[in-house]
Amino acid sequence: MQSVVLITGISGSGKTVALRQLEDLAYNCVDNLPVSLLHEYIAEALNNDLSLIAVAIDARSHGDITNLPEIIAGLRARNIPIKVIFLEAATEELLHRYSESRRAHPLTQKLKQLTQSTPSLEECIEYEKELLAPLRQTEHVIDTSNLVPSQLRAWVREISEVPPGEILLTFESFAFKKGLPSSADLVFDVRCLPNPYYDPQLRPLTGRDKPVADWLSEYDSVQELINDIASYIKKWLPLYMQDTRSYLTVAIGCTGGKHRSVYVAEQLAKYFSYHQPLRVRHRAQAQFYSDLV
């Protein structure tokens, strides 16, 4: 089976981690490929019987990156099964990462030429987000804010394994106190439900642990809300599938992302277990991914 994965997105959002994961999965990887060579390179690689191909393109790449959506459309028109993973992170998180690495933003010189003044790091980040906005709106987005590398590697592996033409349904729990994941297509707030956090014996556990699950299942309101969310998704999922998209991410949020949202996401995954491919992610619980990395 042929599989072509393009890693792109905002500088500093984790493209190196993603590309190395694909390399570990036996993909033939090329980093920082010039935009103008993407079509030619993939076509040549496939002609040489390379079935697993991964390419990383970002603001460092030579050429006008605004041409990337058109090039991707051209590849798909030729029935080349290309998956595009767009990585991004909150501006505050990107500022922190650049501060730690002490590296200059790759668009610094370009923006300096355009504005005739030295831009700040934040200005470079916002300029890049604006530049790549058209591509972000059409592809699979992963918000790497607050993610540990093991989580990102696991998510990239999941996406790379999805057969072409299939829609990946993902239920993702998160903590409202850390902000909404920008990659979510649908967001449901379950903070109105009873909170196991206030039980000292349940506080150290998560929504995947039986004592927490049993505690939450005793409340009719919990099952009613799960049923309502499930009914909504079941009604509208067929239309999302007709929208030629390759993924649908349903985010479930509570205050800390540890108990209620995790339990609801797990229950919804069981309800929709008939749909494949299906994934469950817990954004605030990095330890859940120890069996995936």
TrEMBL record:
Matches recorded under Pfam families: PapZ_C, RapZ-like_N
Coiled coil: none
Residues annotated as binding ATP: G9, I10, S11, G12, S13, G14, K15, T16
Keywords: ATP-binding, GTP-binding, Nucleotide-binding
InterPro entries found in the cross-reference section: P-loop_NTPase, RapZ-like, RapZ-like_N, RapZ_C
Family annotation (SUPFAM superfamilies): P-loop containing nucleoside triphosphate hydrolases (SSF52540)
Domain RapZ-like N-terminal: 4-158
Keyword ATP-binding: yes
Residues involved in GTP binding: D58, A59, R60, S61
Molecular-function GO terms, alphabetical: ATP binding; GTP binding
Domain named RapZ C-terminal: residues: 169-284
The protein's name: GlmZ(SRNA)-inactivating NTPase
Lineage: Bacteria, Pseudomonadati, Pseudomonadota, Betaproteobacteria, Burkholderiales
